[in-house]
């Protein structure tokens, strides 16, 4: 069929009502958002957004309402989509943006693709990876993996991806989203090592839209976390703690979920796998811990300092 591309859409969208089909690859995926309110009667008040790209650049794509339970889990990072009967809207100004793995890629930030169940009903097709042709010019998914030895030199709020062997995982804890709010964030702390430093990655993992992964993070699993943010925490005596926290676009993978993921081709991931092959499993198991209360960042060692 006659296709369009994202660059052409941005130039012509105001003058058109009907758009040609789009062929894009998903590069980033947000957590699922529930926006229901008691006074509004909506069947499926869900929303999720994705960053999709073709040879011309990258744009946000929003999946609405009942399309979310139908399509959200099928739309993975790396999935190629053929879209028809979508609509174009001006971008929502307050959304967060992931940091692209390819810093040279052009971002079309003024508009976004909207996928709806009606007016008009969007047609979505997933193209199997073995049928994707090189001449389509779709970009590959790129990552920003770092090692533990590189972490201390990174600035606050820097975006990165990590892989490590889990040595500690804490219990699930809750924090209020806002003061006096009845909504909570669910999170847990984890430590992961990659052999490049004596120190582990300290990871604050909020529950994303992957409960089956979040609940099964155990010691000795290979953990991949994408789109993590660096937090540089300075205490009063200027001692520094560095940890990583999940962002709105973070994806988490554990042993059993890695097969077929685009990051398996990354050089730093391959180096980590080589390092794990040189380790004694029995020795590592002795150093692992699970559960318990983990106060972090650590409180001062006396009440006077507190």
TrEMBL record:
Pfam families: RADX. InterPro entries: NA-bd_OB-fold, RADX. One of its GO terms (molecular function) is single-stranded DNA binding. Gene3D superfamilies: Nucleic acid-binding proteins. This is RADX protein. It comes from Gymnorhina tibicen (Australian magpie).
């Amino acid at each position: 069929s006659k296709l369009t591309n994202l660059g052409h859409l941005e130039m012509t969208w105001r003058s058109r009502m009907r758009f040609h089909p789009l062929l894009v690859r998903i590069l980033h995926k947000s957590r699922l958002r529930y926006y229901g309110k008691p006074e509004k009667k909506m069947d499926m008040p869900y929303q999720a957004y994705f960053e999709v790209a073709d040879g011309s650049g990258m744009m946000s794509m929003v999946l609405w309402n009942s399309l979310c339970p139908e399509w959200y889990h099928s739309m993975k990072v790396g999935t190629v989509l053929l879209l028809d009967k979508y609509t174009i809207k001006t971008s929502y100004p307050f959304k967060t943006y992931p940091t692209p793995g390819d810093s040279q890629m052009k971002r079309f930030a003024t508009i976004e693709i909207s996928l709806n169940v009606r007016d008009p009903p969007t047609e979505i097709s997933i193209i199997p990876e073995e049928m994707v042709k090189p001449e389509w010019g779709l970009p590959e998914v790129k990552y920003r993996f770092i090692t533990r030895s590189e972490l201390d030199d990174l600035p606050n709020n820097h975006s990165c991806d990590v892989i490590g062997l889990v040595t500690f995982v804490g219990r699930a804890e809750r924090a209020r989203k806002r003061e006096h709010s009845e909504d909570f964030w669910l999170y847990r702390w984890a430590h992961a090592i990659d052999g490049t430093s004596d120190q582990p990655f300290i990871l604050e993992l909020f529950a994303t839209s992957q409960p089956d992964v979040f609940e099964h993070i155990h010691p000795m699993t290979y953990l991949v976390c994408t789109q993590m943010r660096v937090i540089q925490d300075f205490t009063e005596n200027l001692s520094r703690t560095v940890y990583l926290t999940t962002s709105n676009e973070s994806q988490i993978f554990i042993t059993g979920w890695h097969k077929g993921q685009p990051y398996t081709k990354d050089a730093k991931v391959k180096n980590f796998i080589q390092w794990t092959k040189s380790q004694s499993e029995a020795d590592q198991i002795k150093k692992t811990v699970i559960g318990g209360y983990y106060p972090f960042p650590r409180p001062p060692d006396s009440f006077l300092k507190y």
